[in-house]
Amino acid sequence: MPINYKMTITEKKGSQLSYAFFVFYTLAIQAFIHPAAGTSIETTEIRKGFSATPGHVNSEFQYLLADPTGLFAFGFMRVGPTKLNLAVVHLPSSLPVWSAIPSNLANWGLSTTLSFDGNLVLTDKSIHDGVLWSSNSTGGDFLVLRNTSNLQILSSSDENSAVWQSFDHPSDTLVQGQNFTSMTSLTTPDSRYALRIIGTHIGLYMEFGGRHEINYWRHSPFGAKGAIIYGIVQPLGFFGFYNADSSKAELLPFDSFDRGYLGLHRVTIQNDGNLHAYFWDNNKWDLVYTAVTEPCGLPGICGAYGLCLPGKPSCFCMVNGTDGCLQTDSGDFCSKEYNDFSVVRRSGVTVEYNELMLSARVQSLAECEKICERNCTCWGALFSKTTNVCYLMDYPIQTVEASGDTHQGYFKVRQQGGGGSAERHRTATAVSVIFTLVFAGFALYGGYWCWDKRRSNLLRLQLAGSSQEMTQTPFKDLRSMNT
Ligand SMILES: *[C@@H]1O[C@H](CO)[C@@H](O)[C@H](O)[C@H]1NC(C)=O
Ligand SMILES: *[C@@H]1O[C@H](CO)[C@@H](O)[C@H](O)[C@H]1NC(C)=O
Ligand SMILES: *[C@@H]1O[C@H](CO)[C@@H](O)[C@H](O)[C@H]1NC(C)=O
Ligand SMILES: *[C@@H]1O[C@H](CO)[C@@H](O)[C@H](O)[C@H]1NC(C)=O
Ligand SMILES: *[C@@H]1O[C@H](CO)[C@@H](O)[C@H](O)[C@H]1NC(C)=O
């Protein structure tokens, strides 16, 4: 099964809206953006009383406002054949670096209006009379687009501090110079994945609504020393992190770091949940950083109950569904209606991010399984035979990775239909399905995997070593070193 098989799986999970959003967004990104015939991009300021309606039927992007350098523009971006969103676009690459997150996408038509009266408001009467998106700002007099791509609402009495700015409400992209704080997050258009600053680290999360989430990647710049206050992507090619005493800085270097070229960098959370950094080389976006280097380390890569074979990654199912692997919903096994489950066991499976998981030291596999079986918020567990550690999954089962035979997996599968809690225990044991290895080739793969893993661990160690050296250099010195 090819890796892009997961697309069908991911698509089904979201609500209709986020599904539509996801597809449209993807199309929009792929669409080439032309300036509409006769469109002027000389407007560098929008004043109170402004109102606009999408006009040019054939254009992919309708400019409303340009930055002083002509590199970025704000306007209506076509999404799919009939919809639109508000976006700030990097013109040379047609890439949206910011887009609004409306309750519904507006139609590209006369029913849609963008107005500015201090508050920037998008409405579409053909959808409903209310507001689809609004900056929720008051006291603004005009709207400008900065040469950094920051869209700002300013008041005439104080032109230096913005009443509202797009930099405080990022979508999936962080551009160079944009302040990334614990108040903001980068999210994929389907809201499935997010990059957030939490306490002492930044991390990638897969979200299931409520308190269920998977933290599958983490970078802890300050160790336990102090909370990160903000992070900024810097022109020298790194993600800089700053704590309360902003003179103290640590950095996550990109491949472009220390190469002497100053150009536009951006960090984007991809639709598959990976985090990439890019450098604009005046012709194309060069990939200069990837957070999750093993594709099987992405929790959604093969969808729910998916099994990812590393190396040249390919997807299989641990539990088959009607179309692909079995789908899971969110939630847990704690309510009466939904407390029934069967069990699937599989050996030789693990995840790349088990150090980030909830874990317990146990005596045996049986003890590990028992912990999960008895806890209604637990969906599954991985037992490590070599370390006697039990890793717990308190979220619907996602993709696991095939690996040697050091780990044993235990996974709950929701039963269709009723069944009381008295029946639950019996069902759980009776229906327990023990899966022997379906893929004989895994043993072979295991060997390869161990070798590959050791190799990549070595690489990681080397990287970690070099970034530690950098930690000790204060940011100020680093700067002078490189200029
Ligand atoms: C504006 O307020 C509404 C309702 O409180 C909220 O849903 C929306 O996300 C806000 N918009 C922005 C850009 O913060
Ligand atoms: C961007 O604008 C700032 C002032 O707002 C200016 O100092 C800077 O030189 C400009 N950068 C470019 C690349 O034009
Ligand atoms: C970034 O945001 C933090 C928290 O709001 C603030 O303390 C810091 O001064 C900001 N830094 C810059 C460079 O804007
Ligand atoms: C799932 O289906 C595939 C192909 O339809 C089959 O090869 C595989 O054995 C099935 N897996 C399980 C666990 O039933
Ligand atoms: C059940 O598991 C959750 C996390 O998965 C944990 O927070 C909770 O304490 C556990 N409950 C019991 C009774 O062990």
From TrEMBL:
Q: Which PROSITE patterns match?
A: BULB_LECTIN (PS50927), PAN (PS50948)
Any idea which UniProt keywords this protein has? Disulfide bond, Membrane, Receptor, Signal, Transmembrane, Transmembrane helix
Give the enzyme's EC designation: 2.7.11.1
Residues in Bulb-type lectin domain copies: 49-166
Which domain of life does the protein's organism represent? Eukaryota
Under the GO molecular function aspect, what terms does this record hold? Answer: protein serine/threonine kinase activity
User: What does the record list as GO biological process?
Assistant: recognition of pollen; response to other organism
Question: Do the record's keywords include Cytoplasm?
Answer: no
Subcellular locations according to the entry:
Membrane
Catalysed reaction(s) here are: L-seryl-[protein] + ATP = O-phospho-L-seryl-[protein] + ADP + H(+); L-threonyl-[protein] + ATP = O-phospho-L-threonyl-[protein] + ADP + H(+)
Looking at the UniProt record for this protein, which Gene Ontology cellular component terms does it annotate, in alphabetical order?
A: membrane
Q: Primary place of residence?
A: membrane
- Describe its function: Involved in sporophytic self-incompatibility system (the inability of flowering plants to achieve self-fertilization).
Record-given protein name: non-specific serine/threonine protein kinase
Q: What is the lineage of its organism?
A: Eukaryota, Viridiplantae, Streptophyta, Embryophyta, Tracheophyta
